[in-house]
Amino acid sequence: MKTFHYRTVVLSGLLAILAPIGTTHAQEQAAQEPAAAAPQPPDCLKYDSIRPRGSTTPWPPNCATFSPDLGGLRETLFDHGWNVRGYLTLINSLYDIRNKNGNDLQTYPGQKPLLGTALWVSSLYDLSRLGFNPGATFIFDVSSAASTWHDFAPSKTYINELSIFTPFSNDRAELKLGFVRAANEFYGQTSGTSLGASALRLESAITVQAGLTTIEPAPYLGLTVYDKDHRFYSKSAVAQSMSPDGLIANSDLKHDLFTRIPGAGAVYVTELGYRGRYDLGEKAHWFRAGAIYNTSQYRLYDGSGRKDRNYALYSQADIQLTHDSSLSPLLGWYMNLRANYAPPDRNVYNGDVGLSFYKIGTFPSRPADLFSVSIARNWFSKDVRDQFALAGLETEKYQTTYSVSYAYEVKRGLYLNVGLSHTDHPTLAPKQEAATVASLMLTAAF
Fold this sequence. Notes:
Layout: H1 2-18, H2 25-30, H3 73-79, E1 82-96, E2 114-126, E3 137-147, E4 156-168, E5 173-180, H4 206-209, E6 218-226, E7 232-240, H5 247-253, E8 266-275, E9 286-299, E10 307-320, E11 332-341, E12 349-360, E13 370-380, H6 382-390, E14 398-411, E15 414-423, E16 435-445
Antiparallel strand pairs: 1-2, 1-16, 2-3, 3-4, 4-5, 5-6, 6-7, 7-8, 8-9, 9-10, 10-11, 11-12, 12-13, 13-14, 14-15, 15-16
């Protein structure tokens, strides 16, 4: 029954330290601009012509890393068509400062003091040098992670992407194929301009429950099509699903890229969206909605003993409320809204909603910092709760989380992100006191 407690709380931690780094089309425009808070070496912008592509997690431009030229190594690599990018989570710590639930049996991150660390390194090659379309990129990523709680982040080293990305049709379409973590190609888990300067919030478990791979990659084929102005887009993919037994079970079963996961079939996902062209003076709005259909057989919780395929629906919007600087169009206040659904007879979490406000550039003197405050509610499936009731266990109907965070740029490429979140019902079962978890994360981009 442990799986029932962990799916959402584990997801939040994993996304924080293991999310792959990349850019969408709109974020690629930002990658051409130097960070506003620091003097820039003259050649660092050119390296961004070879950069992570396709993912919705924003990565800072080379000029915003703590060593834009890596002591001359970046220039040498670039001359041969290569770029190496990296992201290091020096420390990721969580602790329930109220400590009302004891720490004999850990059921949520922070119930016991939790520490995590991770390293991501991406090697990229400019395939246009071999005759591919301009912008075509070979991507080879490796990650290593460790934590003091296996169900937060399994300790292992693995390949987290091996793929080819290529635009075509006059940059109106993009194709990505290889071994990819599908959950990070859709939805947009991170609010902010980079993984370091991101908003703290309880992430949705819906896309992960529906089988989109999150920790380690699986075979993937994705296509994105844009309108002529690159505002509207349609993005679809077919990939191998995660194990129907969940995220941690999938990671435990997967030993290498070619491991066959028992019971994992094909998963299909499609997303429609709109992104404002802030490079043309528009606000940086991002609206998207999608559907996931998983052909794997999931156990039903309605007492029938049957299995069936799974599906989910999701929607999310980031709305720029203010435009604080003509020189840096992304600065200002934003509002994030989300609403997601999954059928209750085969999913532990069958719905969630969330509301966040965050500000990129908290003060004129701190344009690279980010402040956020949010509230989110997850609903536990009634079918699952009924099964627990048959076993004589009391369960919660929902959980509500309030959070506040501040991402502070210590120096170029180095971020300290501190946060505090309060959750009324930290687990489905057993019923427990509310948890108030303090978090601290120190990250570096290179």
